[in-house]
């Protein structure tokens, strides 16, 4: 399923997460999982696609454990906290911000196609097109543009933006059939 022209795509894969949402002041971050979103299951690769009000589409790997963030409880998620597995999120143009909260980083869409991959020791963010802000839970942001990536590990040092090779980007995007 391809996003509409001009849509934003967030791609997230995670192994572990903490109570990051509570630490960021999101103590009541989400509606019931999938509430208000129509769900379709696929087998290759195994995943579920949630079509949510407001045009947001969330693809969850079958092994994913996550929680949608819907602060105003209008059925239109503004983000997600991922505990395990992976998410790919397509947002329509001019919809407003959408954030993925991981143990190491906060990645915020800025009208683009991008991916976030989380393993226990780091969060990696890659931008296919457009631009994305990435920061640690506390600290300054870096802006990634098309072809850029960053690996965020625990610590406080500056984030180092690098160009990703085609192989690394394709491997990440391929996990969701892209």
From TrEMBL:
Keywords: Signal
Signal listed as a keyword: yes
Ranges for domain FecR protein: 50-132
Zinc in keyword set: no
Signal peptide boundaries: 1-32
Transmembrane segments: none
Protein name as catalogued: Membrane protein
């Amino acid at each position: 399923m391809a996003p509409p022209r001009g849509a934003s795509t967030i791609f997230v894969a995670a192994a572990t997460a903490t109570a990051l949402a509570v630490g960021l002041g999101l103590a009541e971050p989400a509606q019931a999982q999938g509430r208000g979103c129509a769900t379709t299951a696929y087998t290759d690769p195994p995943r579920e696609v949630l079509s949510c009000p407001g045009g947001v589409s969330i693809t969850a790997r079958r092994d994913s454990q996550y929680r949608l963030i819907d602060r105003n409880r209008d059925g239109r998620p503004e983000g997600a906290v991922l505990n395990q597995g992976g998410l790919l999120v397509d947002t329509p143009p001019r919809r407003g911000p959408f954030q993925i909260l991981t143990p190491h980083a906060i990645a915020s869409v800025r009208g683009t196609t991008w991916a976030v991959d989380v393993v226990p020791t780091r969060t990696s963010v890659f931008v296919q097109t457009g631009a994305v802000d990435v920061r640690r839970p506390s600290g300054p942001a870096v802006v990634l543009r098309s072809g850029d990536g960053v690996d965020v590990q625990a610590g406080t040092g500056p984030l180092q933006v690098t160009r990703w090779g085609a192989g690394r980007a394709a491997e990440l995007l391929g996990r969701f059939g892209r």
